[in-house]
Specification:
This protein is α/β, with parallel strands linked by helices and 323 residues long. The chain has helices spanning 8-15, 37-43, 47-57, 63-69, 74-79, 86-92, 135-139, 157-170, 192-200, 217-224, 242-254, 303-314; strands at residues 21-24, 28-34, 98-102, 121-128, 147-153, 176-181, 207-212, 232-237, 260-265, 288-292, 321-322. Helix content is 33%, strand content 19%.
Length: 323
């Protein structure tokens, strides 16, 4: 009878219960730190245990910590890179449908990686594009991508333009895009020249979500190219200006398939005029309309607000939230 401790699958399963994360009471008592002392001791028992348990040691891989914090020699990393190399992981998991990378470090490429034909959703959050040039190659490997949530750091407009061109060339099914600057939350909204390439990245844009400084006419005309398909728009602006109101009205007049429109301002549009909403609303399919910041909060009961709501009601629209 075979000893259970000599069966690869059992050793590997038991090894998954060996704790690798320990509290560090000298620093932050409520945080855990990667400290796989017990797992390393198990790996050193014999050759079979080393083969069975070594992959578990590399389940955690932080390239910065490897070189700076843990000071693991380069030759050791090279000898074990089959356990953590992203290309190998992707090749070994061809059924992946969703990939989410947060603050990736030093992704240089995907040499030898096969196309990810099952992947339909990609999320890249807090990306330093200059430090991860290989991500452009990843885009070329996802021909059936339909949704992209992209939040990046910096103002690398030339690289973003190249990325958008790669998306349009390699991802013909892409129709859902959310594009933000990681610094937008502190007031660094995207300019029109950064947003327009993303609207153009999809041949048939259905959902678009972004944060910009203002709703410029150039953004409006680029969106109108997708008027026959746009279903959902979520547009957030830092500045409340006349141009925002006029282009919002035009969107409602020309995007005939629009079901949901959210136009939200960080600051209100002062001295709102009904003339800015002269464009007739021709959207028969509208289900949700949220317009925030179109009037001074102190004048919410003013004739301006009543008149704007009246425009929507005359067109038979359901105004859920307009203030």
């Amino acid at each position: 009878m075979t000893n259970p401790l000599e069966i690869y699958e059992i050793i590997h399963r038991v090894g998954q219960f060996v704790p690798c994360w320990m509290p560090n009471n000298k620093r932050h008592h409520n945080r855990l730190y990667f400290h796989p002392r017990d797992l390393i001791a198990c790996i050193m028992v014999c050759r079979l245990w080393r083969t069975s348990l070594t992959p578990l040691l590399w389940l955690v891989y932080d390239e910065r910590q490897m070189s700076i914090g843990w000071r693991i020699p380069t030759e050791v990393l090279r000898a074990h890179n089959s356990h953590f190399r992203l290309s190998s992981f992707l090749n070994n998991n061809p059924g992946l449908q969703d990939i989410r990378l947060r603050d990736p470090l030093y992704i240089s490429g995907f040499k030898g990686c096969r196309p990810l034909v099952n992947l339909t959703r990609l999320e890249l959050y807090d990306v330093d594009w200059e430090g991860n040039p290989g991500l452009l190659e990843l885009i070329s490997l996802v021909p059936n991508l339909t949704a992209l949530n992209f939040v990046h750091r910096g103002d690398s407009s030339s690289i973003m333009t190249e990325l958008c061109a790669t998306l349009r060339e390699n991802c013909p099914k892409l129709d859902w895009i959310r594009y933000r600057n990681a610094n937008s939350r502190i007031g660094c909204a995207l300019r029109a020249e950064h947003i327009i390439p993303w609207i153009q990245a999809s041949p048939r844009l259905v959902h678009f979500d972004t944060l910009a400084s203002t709703f410029t006419t150039s953004i409006y005309w680029t969106l109108i190219c997708h008027a026959s398909w746009i279903d959902t728009l979520c547009l957030k602006f830092l500045k409340g200006v006349e141009e925002n109101a006029r282009n919002t009205s035009k969107i409602l007049g020309h995007c005939t398939h629009l079901r949901s429109l959210n136009v939200i301002h960080a600051s209100t549009i002062s001295k709102l005029s009904l003339e800015w909403f002269e464009e007739p609303w021709r959207t028969d399919n509208i289900e949700s309309l949220c317009l925030q910041g179109f009037t001074d909060p102190l004048k919410r009961n003013s004739q301006y607000l009543n008149n704007i709501v009246g425009v929507g009601e005359k067109e038979g629209k359901k105004v859920e939230d307009l203030h």
